[in-house]
Design goal:
405 residues; Rossmann fold; 6-stranded parallel sheet; 15 helices; globular
């Protein structure tokens, strides 16, 4: 029996899905035969030559034919998805056998449908790892119109997909609600297993000693940081509007670190609005997280209205590991906002309310003792509820139960 991990992205990419699928595969390779079907690097490692077949940390990696066109252009991204998913499908038909356990991630959205068919045909065990929920994510980001033919078609197709999966892994309670609704009478197959924090290698460090802030000349500022994906699902516009309202507060500075579809808009808005209180930096390696996640007083994580349940930003767990309070700019019933509120490690602000966000930042900047207490709590939670061992144990428990059956 093989355990397969099917993902469009994998090592050496470090983007969220690639990182977590790589670590999961390598974890299970310690006790099982693990194989991976994936494409070529297409994020931070894009263009790096990689072998078609290799063995790394006990995992047999098979890289399929792929397209690496500019993912920020919709039609080119669609071509990438179609080429990669079709190539992985062909290999899956060839390699997957009866009783194999197959993990497949929901992004890109074509891939799980292809793999679900292969698993059904070969009588393999089909495990769906939900990183994004469709069509909800498409509707929230404006890529599909609510109630349109394609919205209805995708909704029906995904209901069928969720009902066919033997087990479903979701990242939070809000995502579980959507998944259970799609799974219908099979809702008991939904398991909540969040992503983990790298609390073993990310530790709190004083801002005054931060080499990035020293380099930028920002050690004397109150730093509000937003790090990670600056894509369609993030309410970046709300943060910029808040920054514009806080231009008069010369001690407050906004630091954005990342990449994504909205980067060009951010650069233009910063220039046109003369927002001198904003610094934009390119995406940095995960190996640099110890430095850049500590380069702030408070961190912002954000999701657009309508994204509740459709996605859970994994960045918050490493922000917590760095001992930083969080402003969740998202709907109150999102997993991110629930964690921030329940653990008392920050503030929750509507993604449609830049005025309230500006007020919250002002409140935070004038409450250093509150920030310190929240940061200590955040670190403690990352070490207990979201440590890598805690989360991997949850996967082990479920997968071992399947093997015993």
């Amino acid at each position: 029996m093989n355990i397969w991990f099917i993902s469009d992205v994998y090592y050496p990419d470090e983007a969220g899905t690639a990182f977590y699928m790589t670590k999961l595969a390598e974890h299970f390779a310690k006790t099982h035969r693990v194989r991976v079907l994936t494409g070529k690097p297409k994020y931070n490692a894009r263009g790096i030559p990689v072998p078609r077949v290799e063995r790394r940390n006990g995992v047999d990696i098979i890289r399929c034919l792929d397209s690496t066109l500019d993912k920020n252009i919709f039609i080119l991204r669609f071509i990438n998805v179609f080429v990669s998913s079709s190539s992985i499908l062909i290999r899956a038909i060839e390699y997957i056998k009866k009783d194999d356990i197959v993990f497949v991630v929901t992004n890109p959205p074509l891939l799980p449908f292809f793999i679900g068919i292969v698993c059904k045909f070969h009588r393999a065990i089909f495990l769906l790892k939900v990183d994004d929920v469709y069509p909800e994510a498409f509707v929230a980001t404006g890529m599909l119109k609510a109630g349109s033919f394609f919205d209805s078609f995708l909704a029906a197709a995904n209901r069928m997909l969720y009902k066919k999966a033997d087990l479903i892994f979701v990242l939070g309670r809000d995502m579980a609600r959507l998944a259970r609704g799609k799974a219908g009478s099979h809702s008991q197959r939904v398991n909540i297993v969040p992503n983990w924090s790298d609390s073993d290698c990310i530790l709190p460090n004083p801002k005054k000693n931060n080499t990035l802030l020293i380099e930028l000349g920002l050690t004397d500022k109150f730093i509000v940081q937003c790090a990670g994906n600056m894509g369609r699902a993030q309410a970046i516009e709300t943060i910029f509007s808040a920054a514009e309202r806080l231009l008069f507060k010369t001690n407050i500075h906004f630091l954005f670190i990342g990449s994504g579809q909205k980067i060009r808009w951010m650069e233009n808005r910063r220039k046109d609005g003369k927002l001198i209180n904003i610094t934009l930096l390119e995406q940095r390696s995960r190996n640099d997280q110890q430095i850049f996640l500590n380069a702030c007083d408070i961190s912002i994580a954000t999701l657009l209205p309508g994204m509740t349940g459709a996605g859970v930003p994994s960045r918050i767990y490493n922000v917590m590991a760095a001992g930083k309070p969080i402003i969740s700019v998202a709907e109150a019933d999102s997993e991110m906002s629930l964690v921030v509120a329940e653990e008392n490690i920050g503030w929750v602000v509507s993604p449609s309310d830049p005025v309230q966000l500006a007020k919250t930042i002002l409140e935070a900047s004038s409450s250093p003792s509150t920030l310190e207490k929240m940061g200590i709590k955040a670190r403690r939670v990352s070490e207990t509820k979201y440590s890598v061992n805690t989360i991997l144990d949850k996967y082990d428990h479920v997968v071992e139960a399947i093997i015993k059956e």
